[in-house]
Design brief:
The protein has about 190 residues and is mainly beta. The protein is built from two helices and eleven strands; from the N terminus they run H-H-E-E-E-E-E-E-E-E-E-E-E.
Length: about 190
């Protein structure tokens, strides 16, 4: 994973470095839209759940040049560890966020926060699958690296705060998790 992130960072630096400065600048407008996706890792707060792979997709609409509203859906996969049974938990979430970004030429840092619905599907040994759905909040930030006027590479760290959820064999006391992802986004008017 570390090698892949280093290669990604090197590619971003090389791509941004060869583009003219004018191509790297973006001026968001009211009514501008963006779609994107990312992959990465998620780290659950509950000690009996192991870190896992995570993916997310989003759509974003600008209400001012610096503020946008973002809808994001994502999913992860965590193995159950340290319990007297085996299995996996698959969280699926849908979040609505407000995003604030700063102009920085080719680099735009941003912060985000919002609310969401978190659906946990449990698949455990010798039981039928079961799901539990909980409300939650999220907070985080990231950086967009513009390599054209309408395309970016993204990095993001989010913390999702969610309460306890139940599976057929146990109650997990904390459904919260950290998410670290890298991806891409395309802009359109």
């Amino acid at each position: 994973m570390r090698v892949a992130l280093m290669a990604f960072a090197l590619g971003v630096v090389m791509t941004v470095g060869v583009r003219p400065a004018a191509a790297q600048r973006r001026v968001p407008d009211t009514g501008m839209w963006a779609v994107g996706g990312s992959v990465g890792a998620s780290a659950p707060s509950d000690a009996s759940l192991q870190r896992g792979f995570e993916g997310a997709g989003n759509i974003e609409g600008y209400v001012t040049p610096r503020v946008s509203i973002r809808g994001q859906i994502g999913a992860a996969s965590w193995d159950v560890i340290g319990r007297n049974f085996s299995g996996s938990i698959t969280p699926l979430y849908a979040d609505g966020n407000v995003v604030y970004n700063w102009e920085g030429g080719a680099i735009h840092p941003y912060v985000t926060g919002g609310v969401g619905i978190y659906h946990y599907r449990a698949s455990e040994s010798a039981t039928q699958d079961r799901s539990d759905t909980k409300p939650g909040v999220n907070l985080g930030g990231g950086v967009e690296f513009f390599f054209t006027r309408h395309a970016t590479f993204t990095t993001e760290v989010l913390y999702h705060k969610v309460g306890a959820f139940a599976s057929p064999l146990a109650t997990f006391n904390d459904g919260s998790f950290w998410r670290v992802g890298v991806g891409a986004k395309l802009y359109s008017h």
